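JOB MANIFEST
job_type = single_chain_structure
chain_count = 1
residues = 355
[input]
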Amino acid sequence: MIVKRLEKNPILQPQDIPAYHDDHEVIGVFNAGVAEYKGETLLLLRVAERPIQTDADSVKTTVVDFSNDQPQVQVLTLEKTDENYDFSDPRTIMHKEKQRGTAYLTSLSYIRIARSTDGKNFTVDEEPFIYPGTSAESWGVEDPRVTQIQDTYYIQYSAISEKGVAVGLISTRDFVSYERLGLIFPPENKDVAILPEKINGKYYALHRPVPKGIGQPEIWIAESDNLVNWGNHKHLLGLSEDGWDNGRIGGGAVPFKTKEGWLEIYHAADKDDRYCLGAVLLDLNDPSKVIAKTFEPILSPEADYETHGFFGKVVFTCGVTLQDDLVRIYYGVSDTSMAICEMQVEDILSRLTYM
């Protein structure tokens, strides 16, 4: 399969973006949602910041406190000698009691817009576009997808707090102001991608619940009349027993229409946390039906910037654009930077195995 990586990859790196918070550093700019608006390509970047670490024996992290009328940014300091916590994962601080799970994240994420007239060279806005605004977002907002329906853009994103990972929805028409529509999926859920039109009177969304008992982190699909209230949930695509997708699987970019069906570029990880991209084809008239899928990745972490970084061996997409038969995939690499690759629609379709 022909995959054309942009020569200037990665296109955006942490050092390209000044920190928004005082005494913080940007450690990741990745997993951007994508929109086309008034002749520009917009990347809704997930920007991850953490306090500048000044003591090798402690870890600082940032949260937004919503306990008072005015939210307050707080920097917390945890001693590495504290026997209550596990600091081994660079992304999270875990309670050592397994049943208690995550204690804190090591960074605070928000959404910042990058703009381009050619889809390849971007300038980044100085201010955040979406910043934690409710208690459900006190640990950050992450991994947006953008669905255009007529002249409205619906941004679905992970809302993180001590209560878990939920999914929020925001609408905008100008990428200046927006309306919060609330949480559309409760914890733990993520990787939501809403299809860009009604099908037989219903909206459809891919989502990824994370069972804590029976079940696996796999792709489901739901229906809605109004984009806010979702139901009739169905399991859509599961893990393999062995191979590149035996750890977890989730939606990636917003599905787009082809003559063969709705084409979804999704992500999956193996049990060693190596993330790749695959493709699945859904029925045009009933996207809860899987027609075909790739049984091997269409994009794997191979380049140095894809294998080394904050959390290496990761390629992860939240958005694509189409130019006739050309699919331009915008993807996060190693939870650190943004990159671009291009593929032909027909080439992707030729890799599918029909079910």
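[summary]
Residues 4-354 form a domain with the Tachylectin-2; Chain A fold (CATH 2.115.10.20).
The chain has a mean pLDDT of 96.
exit_status = 0
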